[in-house]
Amino acid sequence: MKEEVLPSEQRSTTAKVVIASTVMLSFISFWRAAAIVLNDLGSSVYYVGGIVERAIGPAGPWYIIAVMLFSFAVRSIYMESSSMFVRGGVYVVVRDAMGPFIARLSVSALLFDYVLTGPISSVSAGQYLGRLVNETSELLHLSFRLSPEQFAVFFGMAVTLYFWWYNIKGLHESSTKALRIMQVTTLMVVMFLVWCALTLLVGGPAQIPPTPTPAHLQFSDEGLGWFKGTWWPTVPVVAIIIAFGHSVLSMSGFETLAQVYREIEFPKLKSLKIAGNIVCIYATISTGGIILLASMIIPDSVRINYAENLLGGLAMHLVGPELLRLTFHIFVVIVGVMILSGAVNTSIIGANGVMNRVAEDGVLDPWFQKPHRRFGTTYRIINLITILQLITVILSRGQTYLLGEAYAFGIVWSFFLKALSVVVLRFQRHDQEYKTPGNITIAGREIPFGLILTTLVLFFVAIANLFSKRIATISGVSFTAILFVIFTISERRSHRTNSKIEGLEQFNLDMRPEISTESIRVRTGCVLAAVRDYTRMQHLQTVLQKTNVRKQDIVVMTVRGISTAGAGEYLLSEDQIFTDYERELFSRVVSMAEKEGKPVELLTVPAVNPFDAMVRTAATLKASRLVSGVSARMDSEELARRIGKAWEALPEPRHPFSLEIISPDRPSIFVNLGPHPPRLWPEDIDLVHELWLDLSDDFGSKLHHRDVVGVALRRMNKELHSRERSDVLHDVVEELEHRDPKNPK
Description:
Oligomer: single chain
Structural class: alpha/beta
Radius of gyration: 31 Å
């Protein structure tokens, strides 16, 4: 919280206002959401091919493609859980379905996934860059060489710190960079697909990957783990599940989709569907397609040399001049550095979202949710995530395979627990706006066959990974157990010492002596919605649904009533202005705004007379409309009369605006506060007044503003039905193009 201290001579004539800005309440398009997820999911193309082939043999590309196709089913699960607007991703979904114990266990495994997402991506990027430097040095006949592993550690730490700073500043900057990274990555993918097709046409494939049958699987000792020496891998179905489990690493990133859903813009579910489809289609083509092409073009005898930089090897085995291939190789590495580095960003965003929801539920100490003074982000959580990732990078010693094995643990278990919880919620709740396909009805009861089948597949894969990945199991179970203990102790401590209501937002309190459009960053013509009773906010719901935030900002204000004595000589403290009631009220406002995907500015005003406070605030912000709900103490007509009386008491010149009182069971009441026709733009009012002044010399006091408007309307009607109709229509088109659309109400 920051407080502006004023000299004593300025305090007696100004009223203090608290502006409460909720943490990270900024909204992004479905393109930005897809870009954030793809920076994680799509980045796996750079390392998953080598890891999977080392574990299960040359049939790996087919299993990666199978996983990419299976990702459409996982996408549907996340869409169904998000359609119920269960905030917090896997943690809240599992908690609501199966209780806090399993939820703490699942979120501990999920955080292990997030902590490793950044390191495996940044270390892989360092490997690509370091090996490119060595290859270039060798072509130039220079003696300079880098250790790819040591360079990867250094590079991974640098990238982690870079995105730490951008996440400290907020989601908007990070999502913008993610979008730019994916635009460049798309160019690379298209070039790969075209050039690989040309290479196959000219020289044909070096070999075709063997079919994904159990007989063609060549498990390494690391790939079998504790299955080595047992009869289980000889069972065809078990062998396929083990191979599928090693390939599921390519599907990492879907939990990020659940996390960014909170920030997806209106309409949320439609935007989520588009983002999910973009992610799955893009990943199938880029990850599955390019890895398959690499296995067809790079000979088996040399492909093992490119396990750490498969795409670099593919670039050098394309048809064409060596210099051109080297140039493309450099471009591929640059893009890889960008997208793999961007995965650090998505991991920080995802882990930050999960831990925020955990903290709001009282499982994590509220100390972690303290917002940043300047940017409003939960910087302590971001700092913790960054520290864990830096430690992981150092401990990995630059080895991508070790990170990949450990990374797979959290992925599949978080997927399974999420899916299982959605199955339970399908029978507990019936407010899903979207349901996973594959539902059948038996005896009038809907059976989610598709959802259950997907959950069973994830369960068998999770069990297989538990025994086939020694490093993943040991490190994952250890990390999960430590986090689980920490969450359990923190929750018990929180319940004993903290009486905070669960689920409330944390706010930055910005103490201001006065308000202005600059202090709360709103444009002239905003919509001001007044709220006080959180059980009566239907009018706010209407405002959120109907306001085009690209044209108008939304400000939600509440008046903190004080007595005459409280408005005297001494300044009020922040706790007197922004109490627990205001925190709960604004928490519900934030939840409504998030669900609609529209940003709002939050404002608390202490006042003796609430009507004066609302009118003065609307005038100060130059709002176009003041919206209120019905009052429990008076009817709508009396409420409008009192607000109108408060407007008349404003000093000249009084800012004109409209008052709308929304009732849930009858049409809204509109009152125009100001000497102008309803909902006309200020420029139009000025023009009417200028015309009236110009004509007053000829007609005197008999002429009124309504007469000017009446003549103008009749002339327009006459011209509209004459040869001048096209000119009138042209003027109307220009008006629509150069001005905001009028409110239809």
